[in-house]
Amino acid sequence: MRIARGLDRLHASEHPAFIVVGVFDGLHLGHQYLLRNLVEQAAARDARPMVLTFDHHPDELITGSAPPLLCDPDERFARMEAAGVETVVVVHFDQRMRETTYDAFVARLAARGPLAGFLMTPDAAFGYGRAGTPESLAALGREQGFEVVVIPPFELDGRAVRSTEVRAAIAAGDLDLAAALLGRLHTVVGEAAPDGEGSVLAFALPVALPPDGRWAAMVETGGLGGFAEVELRAGRVHVPGGPRSGRTRVAFLRRSDRGAG
User: Fold this and answer.
1) Beta pairing class for 48-54 and 2-4
2) Residue 225 belongs to what H/E stretch?
3) With 0-12 CB in 10 A as exposed, 13-18 as middle and 19+ as buried, what is 170?
4) pLDDT tens digits, residue range 73-100?
5) How far apart are CA 101 and CA 74, in angstroms?
6) Domain 185-259 fold
7) In angstroms, how far is the first alpha carbon of the chain from the final one?
8) What is the pLDDT, as a whole number, of residue 70?
9) Which CATH superfamily is domain 2-156 in?
10) Is the pTM of this model over 0.70?
């Protein structure tokens, strides 16, 4: 899978691209559904399945506060590749990008190669003022020769799966619901540092964490892993007897009996 760090670094190609634009911050079931449809629609048009996403959450600029991560950035790319995505373009979201109109955005993509189309849900939009709706993009496509395929949002038990709901479930300690929405255990990845008889994890960016207390988890570092009981204190993940250093994954299972209160 090719990863282009910016539109200007996107490899020029004569092979048409079929594109979905989104934050893809959680790679939850709704995102997985989009990627499946992206790959299927691209194959039907003999096009490259391409994801256009951002280097950090747009809310960091728009509201001044980015929501905590639901998926490690490296794991996000690995899951996209496993889904069949051929190219990912990671755009730096700054004020200039925020003010870029959707048609200018499309023009920059078209300058790198032909466009087969875009995949969208009915409420999706991009570009300045979120003016790049399915309707406005379809009108542009009729002028420029690309398609817009609109699919319904993914629902679980009659409710659309969204990152905000996953974060709310994690914050409430409802890991069963979070896992159901994610399609996997909620996992965080950090760098271990010594902490007493164990370690504490440091994160490059804020991550979504359950409430403070003791949690049963699967802990993995250096390719080795096993069951452990981790403790969350003041939003920090402490791993008793854990690795003293190295990149460490913690997959939360359930609240431990001793921490259930």
Assistant:
1) unpaired
2) strand 224-233
3) buried
4) 889 999 999 999 999 999 988 888 889 9
5) 29
6) Elongation Factor Tu (Ef-tu); domain 3 (2.40.30)
7) 46
8) 94
9) HUPs (3.40.50.620)
10) yes
